[in-house]
């Protein structure tokens, strides 16, 4: 479980996050939704330590990340798996080397043990026998799946996904969504997905926070989302004709 | 001035992160071998071609300018040797390597920055500056002196070939090459090269590491890295020459 309490962040005069508090629950796919520029990416970057909040707390399973020392912070970071928008695979490494990389850096496993774990993760994302491909040879969906495999190879306690479906066709997007949800249940981890894709919201939205202009305006799940009378949320969710028809 | 101080501050902050013990030596060694190939071995052919032809041209020009019959022809070998060892090989080859290796380092790290690969390293708890930049600096400092010494040798072969076309006999040329040879010149050239290798690799890495934006920003970082490294090489060439040879 990850709790954020009273997170505040400015970029110059722009007040990006205003006193944001929310609890991301363990074993669930927690979604942060909102328009582009609403503060979603800033929030996720604060969670993973790429940005620093001006005030507030981030509590990982009862541990306040701001109070722990550098070494413990680095250990905490190793417990976080991150799926970037573009995959962020190391383009000079093969698929196998990309997934094996965290194991080589942080464990003392033998080559055989590492390879066994890599193959297990590749199988989990349905990419067996793709070990020797380079990232440039992968399709968008395959890139995301390799990135998921790399994110779970260290058996993280927390999985953070930034726009996992961007640039994917609807069918592949559903495959990625389902994979994220299955992994969340299988390993009982805390998963946070940052998205503005309404298909994802309806597919895997178990615990949702709607951010608008740097503030949390609504929280709930995919079922309560359809019946909400929050105007800003409805303007965002039912922007397309398809979803307007779904509501009516 | 403020901008310069800002860059200097960021450079030293980055270098403080770079100069730290690698997270894992086995991974560092692997990275180092890769970088040796990229910054060193891949530049060998360029250095050979440049050194040979510049050596040949230096000797022909020297012969062409020696119109006084009282000047012995072995001076062609002597002048070519000193030009190559003191200036052409360490400084000119370093300037060319700033273009080839420096732009490659800046664009590689810059691309990693804009595609979030550096963020991915940081999230794993890896010191990205040290992981990416330290092997490049070590590889450059280790390999560039070999390239420069090789350049001196190839340049002298080129100078000999050029000398033959300017009617300088092999015996005269060889006599000039050996005439009052001061081995400290080689030491001086290697010292300069080590400084230049550090400048090229660290300055280029700095501009790549601090790239912000997309593909255009990567190109801009690469150009700025080459220009800045070249200016610093010329500046340090003057300073080091003044300190070492004066």
Sheet with most strands of chain B: none
SS content category of chain A: alpha/beta
> Strand share of the residues of chain B?
under 5%
Query: Which range does the strand content of chain A fall in?
Result: 15-25%
Output mean pLDDT of chain A. Answer: 88
Q: Which architecture of chain A would the CATH scheme give at its second level?
A: 3-Layer(aba) Sandwich
Low-confidence parts of chain A: none
Identify the strand order in the major beta sheet of chain A.
6-7-8-3-9-10
Give Rg of chain A in angstroms. 18 Å
Quaternary organization: heterodimer
Structural overview:
The complex is a heterodimer of chains A (248) and B (246). With 248 residues, chain A is α/β, with parallel strands linked by helices. Chain A has one domain: Rossmann fold. In chain A, 40% of the residues lie in helices and 25% in strands. Chain A has a 6-stranded mixed β-sheet, with helices on both faces. In chain A, strands 2-1-4-5 form a 4-stranded antiparallel β-sheet, with helices on one face. In chain A, a hairpin with a 2-residue loop joins strand 4 and strand 5. The longest helix of chain A is centred in the C-terminal third of the chain and has 18 residues. Chain A is globular, with a radius of gyration of 18 Å. The model of chain A has no long low-confidence stretch (mean pLDDT 88). With 246 residues, chain B is mainly alpha-helical. Chain B has 9 helices and no strands. Chain B has one domain. Chain B starts with a helix and ends with a helix. The longest helix of chain B has 40 residues. The chains are: A alpha/beta (248), B mainly alpha (246). Chains A and B meet through helix 2 and helix 3 of A and helix 2 and helix 5 of B.
């Amino acid at each position: 479980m990850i709790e954020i309490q009273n997170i505040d962040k400015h970029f110059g005069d722009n007040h990006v996050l205003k006193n944001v508090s929310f609890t991301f629950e363990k074993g669930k796919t927690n979604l942060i939704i909102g328009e582009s520029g609403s503060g979603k990416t800033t929030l996720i970057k604060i969670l993973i330590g790429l940005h620093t909040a001006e005030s507030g707390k981030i509590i990982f399973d009862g541990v306040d990340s701001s109070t722990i020392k550098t070494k413990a912070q680095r250990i905490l970071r190793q417990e976080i798996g991150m799926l970037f928008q573009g995959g962020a695979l190391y383009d000079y490494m093969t698929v196998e080397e990309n997934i094996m990389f965290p194991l080589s850096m942080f464990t003392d496993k033998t080559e055989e043990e590492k390879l066994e774990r890599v193959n297990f993760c590749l199988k989990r994302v349905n990419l067996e026998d793709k070990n020797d491909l380079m990232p440039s040879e992968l399709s968008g969906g395959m890139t995301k799946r390799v990135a998921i495999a790399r994110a779970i190879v260290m058996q993280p306690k927390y999985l953070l996904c930034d726009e996992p479906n961007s640039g994917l066709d609807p069918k592949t997007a559903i495959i990625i969504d389902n994979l994220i949800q299955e992994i969340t249940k299988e390993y009982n981890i805390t998963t946070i997905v940052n998205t503005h894709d309404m298909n994802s919201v309806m597919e895997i939205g178990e615990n949702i926070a709607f951010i608008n202009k740097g503030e949390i305006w609504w929280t709930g799940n995919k079922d309560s989302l359809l019946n909400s009378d929050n105007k800003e949320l409805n303007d965002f969710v039912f922007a397309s004709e398809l979803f307007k028809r779904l509501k009516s | 001035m403020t901008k310069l101080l800002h860059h200097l501050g960021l450079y030293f902050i980055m270098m403080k992160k770079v100069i730290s013990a690698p997270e894992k030596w086995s991974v560092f060694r692997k990275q180092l071998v890769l970088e040796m190939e990229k910054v060193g071995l891949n530049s060998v052919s360029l250095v050979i071609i440049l050194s040979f032809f510049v050596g040949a041209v230096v000797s022909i020009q020297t012969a062409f300018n020696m119109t006084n019959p009282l000047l012995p022809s072995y001076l062609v070998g002597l002048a070519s040797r000193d030009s190559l060892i003191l200036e052409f090989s360490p400084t000119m080859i370093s300037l060319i390597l700033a273009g080839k290796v420096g732009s490659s380092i800046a664009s590689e790290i810059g691309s990693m920055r804009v595609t979030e690969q550096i963020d991915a390293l940081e999230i794993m708890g890896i010191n990205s500056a040290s992981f990416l930049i330290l092997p490049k600096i070590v590889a450059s400092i280790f390999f560039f002196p070999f390239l420069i010494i090789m350049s001196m040798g190839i340049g002298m072969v080129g100078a000999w070939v050029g000398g033959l076309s300017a009617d300088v006999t092999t015996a005269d040329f060889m006599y000039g090459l050996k005439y009052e040879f001061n081995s400290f010149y080689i030491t001086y050239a290697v010292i300069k090269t080590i400084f230049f290798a550090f400048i090229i690799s660290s300055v280029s890495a700095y501009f790549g590491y601090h790239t912000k934006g997309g593909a255009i920003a990567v190109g801009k970082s690469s150009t700025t890295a080459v220009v800045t490294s070249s200016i610093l090489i010329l500046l340090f060439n003057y300073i080091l020459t003044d300190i070492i040879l004066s």
